[in-house]
Amino acid sequence: MYTQAMDTMAKEGKGAPRAVAALSAEDAQRQARFDERIDADGRIEPRDWMPEAYRKTLVRQISQHAHSEIVGMLPEGNWISRAPSLKRKAILLAKVQDEGGHGLYLYSAAETLGTSRAQMLDDLHSGKAKYSSIFNYPTLTWADVGVIGWLVDGAAIMNQVPICRCSYGPYARAMVRVCKEESFHQRQGYEGLMVLMKGTQAQRDMVQDAVNRWWWKCLAMFGPPDADSPNSAQGMRWGIKRFTNDELRQKFVDATVPQARLLGVTLPDPDLKWNEARGHHDYGAIDWSEFWQVVNGHGPCNRERLAARVKAHDDGAWVREAAAAHAAKHTPVEAKAA
Ligand code: FAQ
Q: Distance from the CA of 201 to the center of ligand 1, in angstroms?
């Protein structure tokens, strides 16, 4: 069913040596055990045998997720020095630091699959690896900070809560804490917007303008429609994804509509309406050509975001060198003591 061991067999071809054929039989057994565990909704742990394609898919998804967290620090980080009060500044600082922490748990989870953090970061810095499209848009006003908390973190939670049940243990466990923190992020954003909505007309207009600019981009965060999502079917079969992109997008729309009503903002979609027969909200067409432009590096802030990450990495070289020197100095002593 999860036919990835086929990769090895295809390479062998005709007349493959016996030793290889024997290994294949062993692999077939391992594959069967792996399939059984997935079918029983069990967990796969780092030392367990896994098909190469499962490993690759996880490294791809978890590293993209980690990159999204650390690039995601930048749009809001932009506002730390301009937050309107000490309280808002302290909240924002904590939130942005949390996102950095999420990146670290996720890089650690991906490292258990045998890819080094240095390699993953090289892939980000060279533009080879993806990160979430949403972080390539500018944060123009203070209301953007609230809207990112409410909608971007809200979308992230909708996507990430099911990953707490992901079949790969380290990713699932990392998500538990990440989701708790994202929940605080979502609430602080919504509360910040509530305060603005109770303020002046100019403040209410600022919130509405931010909602208008971010709404469609948040819907696109969930990824392409199921019919155009090459990784979804296999990801679902492996228990890495628990819902499809369209299912999560729909859940997000349904959850957000009443929140928008309570806040007093209008979601910028004339086609958004409750469909009694489906038991869900219908919504308008997403601009997928814009999404792919951004994913392929041509969004309004792609260059700026990558340049900021590369600079931060280069500026931190001395810290990595000092840590490595410290470790080299102390490891032999600790090893002897052990
Ligand atoms: N942006 O076949 P699918 C956050 C790519 S964290 C860019 O559907 P899949 C926290 C996709 O990688 C936000 N690329 O792929 C925060 C694939 O390309 P590839 C990140 C996208 O993996 C809040 C191709 O399109 N969350 O926000 C996007 O089955 C506030 C085809 O797509 C995660 O990473 C996109 N939006 O489903 C931080 C959650 N969508 O790799 C700071 C974990 C799709 O084949 C402030 N990830 N692509 O070359 C996932 O759940 C999945 O990977 C999806 C994509 C749903 C993102």
A: 36
